[in-house]
Amino acid sequence: MNPIQILIADDDQEIAKLIKIYLSNEGYHILEAYNGRDALELIRKESLQLVILDIMMPEMDGLEVCRAVRADSVIPILMLSAKAEDMDKIMGLMTGADDYMVKPFNPLELLARVKSLLRRTSYINSQPQQSDDLDTLQIQTLKINKTTHTVTIEDKSVNLTSTEFDILYLLSSKPGQVFSAESIFERVWKDKYLESNNTVMVHISKLRDKLESELGGVKLIQTVWGVGYKIEP
């Protein structure tokens, strides 16, 4: 079996070296890039399972790289930044990152986040690649196939990240049921929810934009203020 390949893209070589030590000890094969252009080239050339991407890099920043990657790939992206403000976090997630950590961080926490993202991707890829109606959910003209990890609206493919797919599948699996942000986070990220965590809100917003652009503005995901989110059948 080929080792899992992870790209660390960070112009701070000391931080990149620290991350590499922890990930290498877990058996991951590590590639490194110290600017955005080299990172994007490696992402497009190599067979990677995950990208750790710093926001502030020369030549191309992490947000630009993330946008370019998301144009044609759903590879998991963990964004790093020295900025702790909510707006920076929101911008990182809105460009398509799956998770976000603020420097300085605990390397063991980063390792746990990496493993969580890889577990979700591994589960998806391990499923038999064949059609099975039992694994297909349909809400109006929206079809979600868990086996092939695809989403279509009137047979037109909708390109979602793995995180967006997991949120959509969760909501669609229980039409009419309201899921709190805490419940969504703990089920999708498989991690403890922290108060004032905007991660779910940002991913829901991005998911809505993608769905509504294909549904002619129809709002499939409803907000129940003070409670959470739901999809009506």
Brief overview, please?
The chain has eight helices and eleven strands. With 233 residues, it is α/β, with parallel strands linked by helices.
Weakly predicted, low-confidence segments: 123-134
The helix content, as a percent range, equals 40-55%
Overall SS class: alpha/beta
**What sort of overall outline do the alpha carbons produce when their principal axes are compared?**
globular
Total domains: 2
According to CATH, the homologous superfamily of the largest domain is Response regulator
Q: What do the pLDDT scores average to?
A: 85
User: What fraction of residues sit in β-strands?
Assistant: 15-25%
Sheet with the most strands, sense and barrel status:
5 strands, parallel
Query: If you consult CATH, what is the topology of the largest domain?
Result: Rossmann fold
Taking the alpha carbons of the first and last residues, their distance comes to 42 Å
Subcellular location: Cytoplasm
Protein name: DNA-binding response regulator
Pfam families: Response_reg, Trans_reg_C
Keywords: DNA-binding, Phosphoprotein, Transcription, Transcription regulation, Two-component regulatory system
Question: Could you explain the architecture of this structure?
Answer:
The chain has 233 residues and is α/β, with parallel strands linked by helices. The chain has two domains: 5-126, Rossmann fold (3-Layer(aba) Sandwich), CATH 3.40.50; 133-231, Arc Repressor Mutant, subunit A (Orthogonal Bundle). The chain is 41% helix and 20% strand. It contains eight helices and eleven strands. It has helices at residues 13-24, 36-45, 62-70, 86-94, 107-126, 162-173, 181-188, 199-214; strands at residues 5-9, 29-33, 50-54, 77-81, 99-102, 136-139, 142-145, 150-153, 156-157, 221-224, 228-231. The protein has a five-stranded parallel beta sheet, sandwiched between helices. It has a four-stranded antiparallel beta sheet with strand order 6-7-8-9, with helices on one face. The chain has a two-stranded antiparallel sheet with strand order 10-11. Strand 10 and strand 11 (228-231) form a beta hairpin. Mean pLDDT is 85; it is low at 123-134. Keywords: DNA-binding, Phosphoprotein, Transcription, Transcription regulation, Two-component regulatory system. It is found in: Cytoplasm.
